[in-house]
Specification:
Elements: H1 3-6, H2 20-27, H3 42-48, H4 54-77, H5 83-107, H6 114-127, H7 132-144, H8 163-169, H9 175-187, H10 193-198, H11 201-228, H12 232-236, H13 240-243, H14 246-252, H15 266-269, H16 277-283, H17 289-294, H18 303-310, H19 321-337
C-alpha cells in the first residue's frame, strides 16, 4: 500500500475532469457559462488593462537578484549553521514567489513583450515542477469554469477536505512526488485522461517534449549530487519546491477554500485578502483574487486600482491573512462532518446580480 493511498480519502463528489460531474456541469449550464462581473467604465477598464514592460522588468530583476544573492550565500556558507537564513529566503523566492510569476506570465499580462512573458513562464514552470503546456491549458479552464466540479482542474478545497494532504503539502511531501510522477509520465509519452481532456491534439507533442527536458535537468542535478556526495545541488534545484512552498499555500489557499462550488459569481467562490507590501510583492497582488477572476487581463500591478473601482460591489475583503484563516479553519473542520457546509460571503446593499458582461 502506497503513502498516497493512505492519505487520500473518499470525496463527496467526483472531482475528475472525465467523471460524471463533467456531464452534470454541462447539462446544468455551468460549463463555459456567462459570469457576473462588476461593471466598470469602458475607458477605465481599458486603461487598467494596458500592459507595460517596466513594472515586471523591475520586479523580476529584484526577484532574480535576490535568488542569485541567496543562492550564492548557500554555496559559500554550505556546511555552516549560518546557511539556514539563506536557505529559508531562497526557498520562499524559489517556490512561493515563482508561482505568482508563473501565473501572471502565463496570462501574458506581466510584460507587454510576449517573449518576456513566455520566457519567465517557462522558467517558473520548471521551478514549480509543472509541465508548462499542461498547466497553461489547465489554468485557462480554471478561469473559464472556476470551482465548477468536473470542469476545474485546480480545485484545492475538495469536500470533505483532505486536511492531512493539505498539511503535508506545506512541505511539499505529497505534491512534489505527484508533480515528478506527472512529469515522468508525460516524458514517457503518456497524457492521463484529465490532461488529454485539457490539451488540444496539436499541443500534446510539445507537452511530452518539455517534460523530457525538465526530467533531464532534474536527473542531471541528482547525478551531480550523487557524484559530489552533497545535497547542495538539490538544495538549489528541486528541493526548494518542497521547503519553500509553505508561504504560497498560506497566501494561496484562501483564494477559494471554504467557498461555494458551482456558482457563476466570483464574489461567492473567490476571496480578496488585504496583505502587506512584502507579501504582495511575493504574491504579485494575487490577494486581489475576486478582482483578478472578474478581469483576468488586468496586469498584476493594476489590481489595487481595479480593487478601488469594484470594491463597492464586492464582499468586504479580509483585512489580513490571519482573519481569512480564522474563518477558513472552522469551515473546513465543519466540512469533515458536513461536506455541504460552506462560507456565504455577504454582498453589500445594492450589489449587482448576474447579467451579460460587456465585450471589452
Amino acid at each position: 500500500m502506497s503513502l498516497l493511498s493512505l492519505i487520500t480519502f473518499p470525496m463527496e463528489r467526483d472531482y475528475a475532469l472525465t467523471g460524471p460531474e463533467r456531464q452534470n456541469a454541462i447539462d446544468n449550464g455551468l460549463a463555459g457559462a456567462e459570469w457576473y462581473r462588476t461593471p466598470v467604465d469602458r475607458r477605465t477598464i481599458k486603461a487598467l488593462m494596458r500592459r507595460s514592460d517596466w513594472p515586471a522588468t523591475r520586479d523580476i530583476s529584484i526577484w532574480m537578484g535576490l535568488l542569485l544573492a541567496t543562492g550564492i550565500g548557500i554555496v559559500l556558507l554550505w556546511g555552516s549553521w549560518w546557511v539556514l537564513p539563506f536557505v529559508f529566503v531562497y526557498g520562499v523566492l524559489y517556490a512561493s514567489a515563482a508561482d505568482s510569476r508563473w501565473h501572471e506570465c502565463g496570462h501574458g499580462t506581466a510584460f507587454r513583450t510576449r517573449w518576456k512573458n513566455d520566457a519567465i513562464y517557462e522558467i517558473a514552470s520548471f521551478m514549480m515542477m509543472r509541465n508548462p503546456v499542461v498547466w497553461r491549458w489547465g489554468h485557462a479552464r480554471h478561469h473559464t469554469d472556476t470551482i465548477i466540479v468536473g470542469r476545474d482542474p485546480e480545485i484545492a478545497g475538495m469536500r470533505p477536505p483532505q486536511l492531512i494532504v493539505i498539511c503535508l503539502n506545506f512541505f511539499g511531501i505529497v505534491a512534489v512526488p505527484q508533480s515528478l510522477a506527472a512529469i515522468a509520465q508525460n516524458a514517457a509519452g503518456i497524457l492521463p485522461p484529465d490532461e488529454a481532456d485539457l490539451i488540444p491534439e496539436i499541443e500534446r507533442s510539445k507537452a511530452i517534449r518539455v517534460a523530457r527536458i525538465h526530467l533531464a535537468i532534474y536527473a542531471a542535478t541528482l547525478a551531480l549530487a550523487i557524484w559530489s556526495w552533497s545535497l547542495l545541488p538539490l538544495m538549489l534545484i528541486g528541493l526548494p519546491r518542497a521547503y519553500g512552498i509553505w508561504l504560497l499555500l498560506l497566501m494561496g489557499l484562501p483564494q477559494h477554500l471554504g467557498l461555494a462550488e458551482d456558482v457563476l459569481d466570483h464574489r461567492l467562490n473567490s476571496r480578496t485578502v488585504l496583505m502587506s507590501p512584502v507579501l504582495r510583492f511575493i504574491y504579485w497582488n494575487m490577494n486581489y483574487h475576486i478582482e483578478h477572476h472578474m478581469y483576468p487581463m488586468v496586469p498584476y500591478h493594476a489590481l489595487p486600482a481595479l480593487h478601488e473601482e469594484v470594491k463597492h460591489d464586492l464582499p468586504a475583503p479580509n483585512p489580513s491573512l490571519w482573519h481569512a484563516w480564522s474563518e477558513i479553519i472552522p469551515c473546513v473542520l465543519l466540512q469533515l462532518r458536513d461536506p455541504h457546509h460552506f462560507i456565504r460571503p455577504v454582498l453589500p446593499p445594492g450589489a449587482g446580480t448576474l447579467q451579460p458582461s460587456p465585450p471589452y
